[in-house]
Amino acid sequence: MPQPLIRIALTGNPNSGKTTIFNQLTGTRQKVGNWPGVTVEKKEGEIFKLGYHIQIIDLPGTYSLTPFSTEEIIARNFILDENPDVVIDIIDASNLERNLYLANQLRELDCKVIFALNMADVAKSRGYKIDAKKLSQLLGVPVVFTVGNKGQGMTELLETAVEVAQKPLSIPEERRVRYSKDIESAISELREFIRSQGDVPLPYNQRWTAIKLLEDDRIVKDRIKEATGGKSREILNKTEDLRRRLMSRFDDEPEIIMTDERYGFIAGIIKEVMSTSTFQRIDMSRNIDLVLTNRFLGFPIFIFFIWAMFQITFSLGAYPMEWIDAGVVGLSTLLDTLLPSGMLEDFILDGVIAGVGSVIVFLPNILLLFFCIALFEDTGYMARAAFLMDRIMHLIGLHGKSFIPMLMGFGCSVPAIMATRTLESRKDRILTILITPFMSCSARLPVYIVLAGTFFAANAGTVIFAVYLFGVVVSILSGRLFRTVLLRGEDAPFVMELPPYRMPMIRSLLIHMWDRSKLFLKKMGGIILAGSILVWALSSFPKESRYSPVYEAQIARITGAYAARIQTADPPEAERLKLEQEELIQKLSLAKEAKRAENSYIGRIGKVIEPVFQPIGIDWRGSVALLTGFVAKEIVVSTLGVLYVAEGDAESEALRHALKRSGITPLSALSMMIFVLLYIPCLATVSAIARETGSARWAVFNIGYTTAVAWGMAFIIYQGGRILGF
Ligand code: GDP
Ligand code: MG
For residue 583, what is the enclosing H or E element? Predict the structure, then answer.
C-alpha cells in the first residue's frame, strides 16, 4: 500500500539555515532544478519516514512575503497556490527580531505553520535566552529549537510537522494578527464591501485579501482582476477610497503604517520572550574581523586566500588528475588491442576518447575550485571579501556587494549571474552581469592548463594566475566604461552586512561538490561527447585529398630506391639507410595527413575562418576549436584533442606533444589563452544573461563586446610580442 503523502515547504530569511536543514532532512535524496519560468534554484527531496511519504521543498530565502523580488514572489505563490501541508519557517534565533517579520506574516495565512528556531547554539553563545514555550503561546504556532549544522532537533521537527499535518487546520485565537483601530476598521469595511458584492470568488481568504489590497499589493490586485472579472473594478475603487482615507489620517502610505505596526508587535514579542544574560561571551566573529578586515592586513590576506585557492586547485588537483589520465590511457591502449582496426576503432579512439578523455582529466581541478569558493561562502568570508573590495569597486561605480557574483564567476558564470539578484538597483545588476563573464570560469581552466603547461612548462602556474588577473582587470575596466557610457547613475549607498563567521559543514560542502560532479559528468556525456564526435566526423571525412596519391607515389618511390641501396650496402651502412628511410616516410605521411586534414570538412570550415584568426597567431585548427568553444568552453580542449592528436596516439601527454610539433609558439599560445579568457561566454551563460537582464539585447551586446575585446587584446599581445621579438 502506498504511504500517504505529506508536502513540507521550508521557508525563512536568507542565511537562516534552510538549505542546511533541508540537506539534513533529505540526505542525498534530492532533486535540484529551477522554478518554472525563472532561474531561481529549486530543491526538492523526498523521504519515507514515520509512515509517510514526505516531500520537502526548499523555498528561496526571503525577508518578507511582500512581492519585491522574484524570490519573495516564488515563496509566497508556492505557499498560497500549492497549499503545502505544512510550512516550516526557519528562524535564525540569533537574529530573532529581523526573522520574526516573515514569521509574523506567515501567521496571517491560512496554512499550517511551524517555527524552527535554528542557530540555537549561536543564540546561546551570544547570551540570548529564548523562551520557546512562551513564544509558541503568544504566536499560536508550534516552536522547535534546532541546530542545523549539527543535525540537532531534526527528529523533533519532522515529528511535529507530521503531527501538525495530520490534524485539521485550526487557527487559535492567539494566532490572529491585529492592527490598530483605523486599519482594522478599514479592513472590516473592505471585507464588508466585498461581501456586499454578492458571490465573488476570491483567490485567497477574505481578511488576507483585504489586507493586501490595502497594502496595494500588485499581485493580489491582478489576481482579483482575473478571479472576479467585472466586479473587480468596484472592489479596487473601494480600496482606493479606503487607502486615501488612511493616507490622510496617517499622512503616510498604509503599507508603511502596517509595516511599522508589525515591527512594533515584534519588538513587544522580543521583550516578552527573550532575555540577554549580562555575561556575554567574547564575540569571536568580531575578533576575527579585527584581523581579516583590517585596513592594512585585510587586503594582503585576501590576495593570499585567492592565491591559495589557485594553488590548491592546481597542485592538489595534479594528483587525481594523473590517476584519471592513467585510466584514460589504459582504456585506450586496451581498446586499441581489443578492437579491430577500422572505422569503429577510429571513432572510439580518435573521436570519443581523444575528445572526452582530454577534458575529463580536469574534473579534480574544477571540483577543488568549487570547493574553495563554497568554503568562502559557507564560512562567511565572502561578505568580508566584498567589504574589502568595496573601495576598488567604487572605482567602477559599483559597491562591494557586486564583487560576490564576480568571485563566484571563477567557478561558473551561470550561478554567478544569478547571484546578482541580491543587488537592488537594476542598473547595478545589469552592469555586474555584463562584466562577470570576464572572470575566468572553471571551464576555461583546462584550456590554460593544456596551453600553459605545454608552452610555459616551468612557469605555468604564474602564467595562469596572470591570465586570471588580466580577466579581473578587463572586467573592472569594462565596468568603468559601461558606467560612463551605457549605464550612467550613482551607486546607491548601502551597509554591507557581515554575517558571523561559521564553521563550514563538511556535509554540505560534499553535497555541493557531488552536485557539481554530476553536472560536469552530464556535460561530458552530453554536449562534450556530441561535440567531440561531430568534430571527429567532420575532420575524418573525406578520407582522401587530391594530394594523397601524389604522396603515396612518393612514398612508394622512396621505398623502392632505398630497398635497392640497402641490399647492396654493408651492414652498418644498411642500418643507417633504414633509419633514414623511415624518417623520410614518416615525414611524408605526416605531410599527407596534414593535407588531408586541411581538405576535410572541418579543415574547409577552418580555412574559411582562418583569416580572422591569423592576425592573432591562431591557425585553422585553433580557429575551429575556438568556434566550437561557444557551446561550452571545455570543448576547445576536446576539439584540440581530436584535431591535433595523431592517429592511434594513446600515450599520455599526447596532446601536448602534438601541440609542440604543430608550429604553435609560446606567444601564439598566450594569445589564444587571452582570447579564450575574454571571448563569447558559453551558450548557457548567454541565455542566463538574456533571462536575468530580461532582454535578449543585452545578451547580443555581450557577445559582440566580449568578442571584440578578446580579438583586440589578443591582437595587441600577439603583434606587440612579435615586434618585441618574442
Ligand atoms: P540558507 O541561506 O537559509 O539556505 O542558509 P544555509 O543553510 O546555507 O546556512 C547558512 C550557514 O549557516 C551555513 O554555513 C550553515 O553551516 C550554518 N548553519 C546552519 N544552521 C546552523 C546552526 O544551527 N548553527 C550554526 N552555528 N550554524 C548553522
Ligand atoms: Mg539556501
Answer: helix 571-599
Cα 510 from chain centre = 16
Reported as a single tens digit per residue, the pLDDT across 61-110 is 888 888 878 888 899 999 998 999 999 999 999 989 889 999 999 999 98
431: nearest Cα among 470, 394, 377 = 394
Residue type, 610: E
Give the model confidence (pLDDT) of 272-283 as tens digits. Answer: 888 876 444 456
Closest C-alpha to ligand 1, atom 28: 149
How distant, in Å, are the alpha carbons of 475, 513, 567, 572 from that of 30?
36, 14, 74, 72
Ligand 1 atom 9 nearest Cα = 17
Q: Kindly list the averaged pLDDT for each block of 10 residues, start to end, along the chain of length 726.
A: 90 92 86 71 89 93 84 90 94 91 91 94 86 90 93 94 91 84 91 84 85 91 81 88 90 86 84 68 70 85 86 80 85 84 80 78 81 85 85 80 85 81 80 93 87 86 89 92 81 62 81 80 78 80 76 82 78 80 78 76 86 90 86 81 61 71 86 93 85 88 95 95 85
**Last residue in a domain, options 439, 455, 485:** 485
Task: Please indicate, yes or no, whether residues 64 and 127 belong to a single structural domain of this protein.
Answer: yes
Per DSSP, helices labelled H in 396-459 are: 403-408, 413-419, 426-435, 445-455
Is 311 in the same domain as 364? yes
Which pTM does this prediction carry? Answer: 0.57
Same domain, 119 and 201: no
Within 10 angstroms of residue 336's Cβ, the number of other Cβ atoms is 15
Question: Left, alpha or beta for 51 (phi > 0: left; psi -120 to 50: alpha)?
Answer: left
**Cβ atoms 472, 439 nearer than 8 A:** yes
Tens digit of each residue's pLDDT (9 = 90 or more) over 203-231:
788 899 999 999 999 888 888 888 777 77
443 and 315 part of one domain: yes
Ligand 1 lining (C-beta closer than 6 Å): 12, 14-20, 61, 118-119, 121-122, 147-149, 378, 502, 505
Which residue type, as a one-letter code, is found at position 651? E
Q: 34: part of which helix (H) or strand (E)?
A: strand 30-34
On whether both 49 and 187 belong to a single domain, the answer is no
Name the domain count of the chain: 4
Instruction: Identify any residues that bridge with 428 across adjacent strands, giving them in sequence order.
Output: none
Ligand 1 centroid distance, CA of 148 (Å): 6
Reported as half-sphere exposure (CB side, CA atoms, 13 A), residue 26 has a value of: 27
Are residues 465 and 570 part of one domain?
no
- In which domain, by residue range, is 115 found? 5-173
What DSSP character marks residue 456? S
CATH of the domain at 17: 3.40.50.300
77's CB contacts (< 8 A; 6+ apart) are 219
What is the C-alpha to C-alpha distance for residues 626 and 687, in angstroms, rounded to an integer? 19
Rounded Cα distance, 617 and 708, in Å = 16
Å from CA of 238 to ligand 1 middle:
45
Let me know whether 394 and 473 are in one domain: yes
